[in-house]
Design a protein that fits this description.
homohexamer, Arginase, Chain A, 8-stranded parallel sheet, 11 helices, globular
Amino acid sequence: MGGVAAGTRWIHHVRRLSAAKVSTDALERGQSRVIDASLTLIRERAKLKAELLRALGGVKASACLLGVPLGHNSSFLQGPAFAPPRIREAIWCGSTNSSTEEGKELNDPRVLTDVGDVPIQEIRDCGVEDDRLMNVVSESVKTVMEEDPLRPLVLGGDHSISYPVVRAVSEKLGGPVDILHLDAHPDIYDAFEGNIYSHASSFARIMEGGYARRLLQVGIRSITKEGREQGKRFGVEQYEMRTFSKDREKLESLKLGEGVKGVYISVDVDCLDPAFAPGVSHIEPGGLSFRDVLNILHNLQGDVVAGDVVEFNPQRDTVDGMTAMVAAKLVRELTAKISK
Amino acid sequence: MGGVAAGTRWIHHVRRLSAAKVSTDALERGQSRVIDASLTLIRERAKLKAELLRALGGVKASACLLGVPLGHNSSFLQGPAFAPPRIREAIWCGSTNSSTEEGKELNDPRVLTDVGDVPIQEIRDCGVEDDRLMNVVSESVKTVMEEDPLRPLVLGGDHSISYPVVRAVSEKLGGPVDILHLDAHPDIYDAFEGNIYSHASSFARIMEGGYARRLLQVGIRSITKEGREQGKRFGVEQYEMRTFSKDREKLESLKLGEGVKGVYISVDVDCLDPAFAPGVSHIEPGGLSFRDVLNILHNLQGDVVAGDVVEFNPQRDTVDGMTAMVAAKLVRELTAKISK
Amino acid sequence: MGGVAAGTRWIHHVRRLSAAKVSTDALERGQSRVIDASLTLIRERAKLKAELLRALGGVKASACLLGVPLGHNSSFLQGPAFAPPRIREAIWCGSTNSSTEEGKELNDPRVLTDVGDVPIQEIRDCGVEDDRLMNVVSESVKTVMEEDPLRPLVLGGDHSISYPVVRAVSEKLGGPVDILHLDAHPDIYDAFEGNIYSHASSFARIMEGGYARRLLQVGIRSITKEGREQGKRFGVEQYEMRTFSKDREKLESLKLGEGVKGVYISVDVDCLDPAFAPGVSHIEPGGLSFRDVLNILHNLQGDVVAGDVVEFNPQRDTVDGMTAMVAAKLVRELTAKISK
Amino acid sequence: MGGVAAGTRWIHHVRRLSAAKVSTDALERGQSRVIDASLTLIRERAKLKAELLRALGGVKASACLLGVPLGHNSSFLQGPAFAPPRIREAIWCGSTNSSTEEGKELNDPRVLTDVGDVPIQEIRDCGVEDDRLMNVVSESVKTVMEEDPLRPLVLGGDHSISYPVVRAVSEKLGGPVDILHLDAHPDIYDAFEGNIYSHASSFARIMEGGYARRLLQVGIRSITKEGREQGKRFGVEQYEMRTFSKDREKLESLKLGEGVKGVYISVDVDCLDPAFAPGVSHIEPGGLSFRDVLNILHNLQGDVVAGDVVEFNPQRDTVDGMTAMVAAKLVRELTAKISK
Amino acid sequence: MGGVAAGTRWIHHVRRLSAAKVSTDALERGQSRVIDASLTLIRERAKLKAELLRALGGVKASACLLGVPLGHNSSFLQGPAFAPPRIREAIWCGSTNSSTEEGKELNDPRVLTDVGDVPIQEIRDCGVEDDRLMNVVSESVKTVMEEDPLRPLVLGGDHSISYPVVRAVSEKLGGPVDILHLDAHPDIYDAFEGNIYSHASSFARIMEGGYARRLLQVGIRSITKEGREQGKRFGVEQYEMRTFSKDREKLESLKLGEGVKGVYISVDVDCLDPAFAPGVSHIEPGGLSFRDVLNILHNLQGDVVAGDVVEFNPQRDTVDGMTAMVAAKLVRELTAKISK
Amino acid sequence: MGGVAAGTRWIHHVRRLSAAKVSTDALERGQSRVIDASLTLIRERAKLKAELLRALGGVKASACLLGVPLGHNSSFLQGPAFAPPRIREAIWCGSTNSSTEEGKELNDPRVLTDVGDVPIQEIRDCGVEDDRLMNVVSESVKTVMEEDPLRPLVLGGDHSISYPVVRAVSEKLGGPVDILHLDAHPDIYDAFEGNIYSHASSFARIMEGGYARRLLQVGIRSITKEGREQGKRFGVEQYEMRTFSKDREKLESLKLGEGVKGVYISVDVDCLDPAFAPGVSHIEPGGLSFRDVLNILHNLQGDVVAGDVVEFNPQRDTVDGMTAMVAAKLVRELTAKISK
């Protein structure tokens, strides 16, 4: 029951139709108008929020949520397309207070804003292909960055979205970033089942594009020979769980982003052991504890310019939404790293 | 854990800000731009889909899905805000075939199209109040009706959305409709806990506005004295479950909409007994079976100009999404009534 | 994981102790003091509630909840011991309104009061045996009936409690009653696995004791040869589900209780098909719908002097507590039959 | 997560191996030895059980369970491969008594025996293809029928198994049977996604083979144009749910099997509404109630020579196994029809 | 669906009634009689159990369970009111043996006794306000302590109960105690949403009252600025999870209670990471492992005079009751610390 | 709902029958034929697989799965009888890749083969007693070991199966092995509730038989006085969780099997904390993390000649089958230790 089946079928409809009676030109004009309207909606919200923040004053950087409900580049389950609204709900849910662990006040509007979701399903349902869709994601990210002091904190969606997001961040800032990538998998395969935009290939695309200087992968415990070879080829620093007890000290005192445009943090919720985050598509036992992740994030030194939290799959969560709370706390603590 | 808590908090932010340093004018201009962009996005998708349908030809009326993910006017739980994407997923899910029970082919693009969701949460999060929000819903419905041969089939959301939807349908067609309303509750209270837009009051607003000639309520089994008095006041035909075995024959041979602008069908998923539809906010035992509902719908005579399926709450569904399948089949069978 | 395992073990402790060093007399005195204190607590609550009702005036009969959290006489699962607080929660839960289907206002304190639970586990844990425990249940019921205008509406617990409850009702009123008994099973076996107080034997005890004139059993679909023979022996009117479509008309126009002390209604939640009430210990497909039960109850003529709702097992309910809502609605509609 | 993925992958291993270094002959000899051993195991158990029954005497026909844990011919989910042990557990589970509704004693060994499962996964894992696998199923059924007075009552598995089972029954008895087929779907498509053994095609195979004279399909509510055309082509009597209220009387007084070799009953658990049987792969609302099914079965006149209960999917059942109990009760009541 | 909604509504009834026709005096007399009966029931059980223990001889201190099913002072969910019977069930459940990890035999009646629950809901339902209710809790604790060698081990309920319990312990012993408090939250706010008895304020009340000399808080990871300031104001030793890896050694070798009346241990189940204890109202990732908690408890030196296990919420537990088993093991290991 | 209830009842049937009319001889002959056929089926599959492996060449040792679906020797729940097919499904499930953590390729047929399940239930259902059944398990293991290069990796079933498995391994190899036993319980009681084949006694049987030289037990946290005494009596090295932080270093550098016939690894899934493996019969908080287990296994030096993974109970697993994935990963990583 893929989350985007409707879109998938419509693409066929649209193709069939256009093959039959509608000119390609007319179709593409229609699609472009839909895409433009989508970006306009994000732009107007970013503008409004940023104006308000600037009126308040005293903010240097402020985390701004942008949802990318895209699940169709997953190899196994497509539920992450449903994640953004569930994460937002959990962020503001009354079961916890409004402070982060180190004392940032989320109730202060200068700390966290939101520009809503890129209308991914609506665009796909108009027959727009993946190349162009990935560009829409990139454009959306840039639209947010356009508005000072907003910095994009992206809610996935599957991990395929990290490629267009990091590309946009790097292009907008004018150079590569350092990436801290927490994940059970390296997501660095050349292509997965022929899909170059697969959620298992995003970091191959990022490294090929030169959007990152250093790439540190932490939490890895499902990796093939090709995954290790690609890691070497791109100079990736892969920290596997097998040796985490030895690497822990180093990982709890990272310093990143100097000499480049800053730090990007990409958190795949499955970096956590499934005991801590059961609501993921790929259950891979032997992962990090939630505290392990916080220890790494809290102690990281560097200017965090953007980030993402991806691969939370609400269709696999417990009935009480434990993983939604986990994803939300990750977003909250990342917000504390970004906003200042 | 209300589905729209984020929005709720932001409204306060926005008010605080505007009270402090931002002029009301500037804020309203920003909100208007966001609303305009939202409507533009729906318009562009409706245009594109309708153009394609018209190019195909031979269609007199075609059901067009419009999601309204609004849950904050509910008195108990707000999960219906998450329903539209789950219903879409279930409509196209591979577990069933593409024919309706009476043989309509949903794979034929002339039968069913989709213009996506009204970005309710994004608009609320900009501080837009309910009056204006309800207008946005109405405008969205009219935008769809603008494009021949599209007819709106709205995915809720809670039942408060039926008011702006029916209002739009009636205003656009230029006169009242007949309404078949399947529900456990009459939703006709003057106001609920002071909220005139409450999901328990939508049909009071509809009747006051003169948007309906006849209103038939079927499945009723949770009704107070006020509910029965309001029913009498507005001339509502209330069929309570207590007497369903006697009313069944009449309800399985309805003829509606003659002399007015057509028939509107509003299906609250909780019209069904919770055995058949556990994923609802208000579990009220003693309801209709799914077959009872189909027998009423299949045998209804009349020109169905629009409809809605509301109050499915995915946060209360079974782990297999049984109620999502139920909501989806309701949408499929309503599509068969609308499209021709 | 029996709900009363703690009690079971303590009984052994107490026996061992008393065998060893404590005189039987001393032990029994202690037990008696505990039992007296238990009954005093119920009496004081009944008195206070009844005083308030009488001060209000105009009440002829008022349903009064009495919980009997006893599960250890069940043959399969003992979860019904946890039911009473869950049913109370569901009765007052904000998801439904305060009117019964026929218009009784539960918010009116004259309609429904509550004297809490018999402290079954506490008493058993002091080493009190079943004979004496059953007497405590009977005494508790009589204590409630002592206070005009209270009529006991008992929340089980398993079905073994109907014996001491009906016995108390009959003894207090001074003669037999007619019983409407809704159940998947006849519960009329001479003894089950040697336990004469078994939940499968309560109606054998009732008939032997002469506490009932007529006993109508409806919903029966799990019955052995012995069950049918016992039925004949005691003159029970057994309506099996196999012939329900033929018996329906008769059962929807019952007139009971004339010439005796009134009508007692005992509802085993498993009379319903498990589709409507999954939270029961004995899943027996092929039962009544919730509407079938309401049709029988609403149309019953007779003076209902007391009743019970038993065998709801919260440990088998859905995560949303659907069966708790079902049990609560049964209690609400029975309240409407009793109070006047 | 297909229930037979292991087998699927091994088939590839075996093919690759055999392509490489192992002669086809050697491989086929090995496979044949495995198949022979499998059939021997069933034969020995059938022999032992039948000997014991014959020693007891007085039995004319006795239902004998045969599990066929095959799920790989399903189009959507493959969980039915896990069903047979779960159904057995539920049949003997202590939560219900040992009598069927009409008084057959299942504790009497003359009424119900069991020869275990065909080792489907083990055989497939040796690289055996579907043609041959279907023959193994047929041979297993014949092996049971070989032993008087055993009559096969087959536990699926998906619906694809009905073809080899009915074929075996008909071939063994020397002529066609009449089939009562309860299902949401007609399963009569020529082939499904190219698979002629698909669970959606079994009854096309049966009718083509001449194994049935009359085929009555009851509960149908998901059927395409092709399904109806195939129905006509083969002279199938299709009773759709749309008209069930009209057909009910006729279906509750069926007389079948006269002039042919007897009656075969095939019950797809999804003939029931998902409210009554949520544990199925294809949730199709609007089905029969459990009582509807029992009314049809109890009133059927005819000599039932064999039957099956298929498509129960334990991976979609409720946590309490409600559908397992439903499947088990179907088996119990079918046993009562067969044994005499 | 608050666990005490019934009580809440009744309070209104009682107030309305008393306003109208019943004298305040009469009402208060009735309430007092109910409270007296409640305390008598606890006293009689404590007496009986203590007599038996003393007859056995050789016991210096013995843990005695006292349930306090109070959930209405919670800010978010009120399910902890249902916890005590579930914890008792799990303590004696057959899935584990009767020894604690360090070898205490729970089957020895000298090690663990039980005086049942304070009838919180029954008392509230009579219109008794929180001030008086808290006194009833205190009196119940003192009643247990009256009977040598019983020491109270309290089963919550929400954390608001720790205030009246500690107060009673301190008053009864005649001086302050040292408190080891395991929790995700400091529960030391001056008042929460205006409620001075809130479960978020209990330790503010305790410190103000001078009932504790040292207060050590371990597991803290959701704390606001006010929480830290209150901590300083009262001289609380707050150990936050952020620094747990550094504090671990110190916390695994605590020595408490010297020079005061002993040690009190208060365990909020949410001190554990939700992976280990999902059944809590406030899911706060990043907590202690179960082994972390045991290491702290096993190595603690001091005379433990009383304790509590609070905030287990059965309505959020897994279907198998994992958190019930966790709460039960906490009770078992605390029992081993107390009894000697 | 015991997993083998059917079998249990049949045993009674068979006994009754044989007592009555069938000679013991005839019955035993029938049983022997069934047992022979069962072993033949395993032998033929082992032969075929081993032939193929030998044809491929270059394999010294290859893990070969053998399922033993036996649950009736459990003291609490019997669900482990359903485990083998669920573990197989999870091993090959598409959610993870085919490499083990240290790079073994499971897609290489030389690394992992499968001979299916011992038909335990079928044999028991023929009235075969436990003594003989245990011999069948032993014979099955030897049958696998007969075929070079296969080494048995057994899928339980409850822990009682380790006794016949280890016995077979030791007898076949001609001497004792060293055993690494990961478990929450020592399983070394003389007998449990009179059952010498209990899952709580298997290691007592193994030590008595001299099948092991060293026995290391890791993860122990539920142990009685008898358990510790039996440990001493047999010279078992018991590592309790209470001291795991101190023992960790030693356990992460084990060297076993020198001077004996090799190493046997027995993994009871409940060695893990229930947070990591909720799907077990005995929830015992305070266990190992999944990474702890992998660290011990990865660093173990020794020739692993066979192993088992037992006590996974699918009836207690999460709806997503998290524990199935955990059991499968244990099997995968053990495969990597065995195959070379």
